[in-house]
Amino acid sequence: MTTTSRDRAARRRPARLARLAGPAALATLAVAATVGLAGCADDGRADPGPSASSGPTAGSPTGSASGSPDASAGTSAGTSADNSAGAFPGVDPAAGPAIETSYFTARAPRHFRVKVMAEDFSISVNGPGADIGIGIVALNGHQYSLRELARYQRSSAYGLEHAPLGRTTTMGGEPAYLLLASRPGLVVSEAGLTHDGHIVHLTVTSYGEKAENLRLLRSILATWQWK
Q: With 0-12 CB in 10 A as exposed, 13-18 as middle and 19+ as buried, what is 156?
């Protein structure tokens, strides 16, 4: 059988279309992955850090409108709790400018300046050797366990990509995840939870030692009060 130029063109067309469709297909997969995260499915893979056992739970409890506990939400324990009753022994509460939102109040450290980008969305706190950010993001009906939320936030926060999962703390007496990671010249910590239908997280980026970074984080948490 003689192969015509039309036949050869027809054979090449699928390859050309596949090459053109490549970026669009990748974009579709990226969107699907994002939706999958929003659906809160924990992939069940082992995480770096402590081994799993029973421990504090959070996530959808505070994220629900009623604030009622969700027995199915949980974190991996064997995890170290940052504090057990909202107290931070050995840490002086921050005594700088007030941080006011519709959901909570807190204080910044002394010599830090509070800049409200949007009262119930984004607040930056800047001072000697550290940048502090507070984010408030609507859940829009999604629900996260505390561990799922920590995993999700870790994947989206600069400097926390390799932070071990499993550490916990409290924000205004409610269980919260605690992420901590460092690289030469940079330390990042973050505490967060879901509360009243929102993700609320506090992130401290500093340029010194881990201990000083955590002291700043905990000094703010020691003043945290929900409205």
A: exposed
AA identity, residue 37: L
Helices (H), ranges, the chain: 5-38, 60-63, 146-156, 210-221
Which residues in the chain belong to E strands, given as ranges? 98-100, 104-107, 113-118, 122-127, 130-138, 168-171, 174-183, 186-195, 198-206, 225-226
Pick the CATH number of 60-226 from 3.30.2000.10, 3.40.50.170, 3.40.1000.10, 3.20.20.70: 3.40.1000.10
Look at residue 158 in the predicted model and tell me its pLDDT. 86
pLDDT at 118: 79
Higher pLDDT, 93 or 27: 93
Domain borders along the chain are: 1-38, 60-226
DSSP strand pairing (122-127 vs 113-118): antiparallel
Measured CA distances, 148 to 4, 76, 153, 207 (Å): 58, 10, 9, 28
β-pairing, 174-183 vs 168-171, is antiparallel
Bridge partners for 183 per DSSP: 186
> Distance between CA 165 and CA 181 in Å, rounded?
11
Contact in structure between 198 and 136 (CB atoms under 8 Å): yes
* Banded pLDDT at 87 (limits 50, 70, 90): low
Query: Which residues touch 122 (CB under 8 Å, ≥6 apart)?
Result: 133, 134, 135, 136
pTM: 0.64
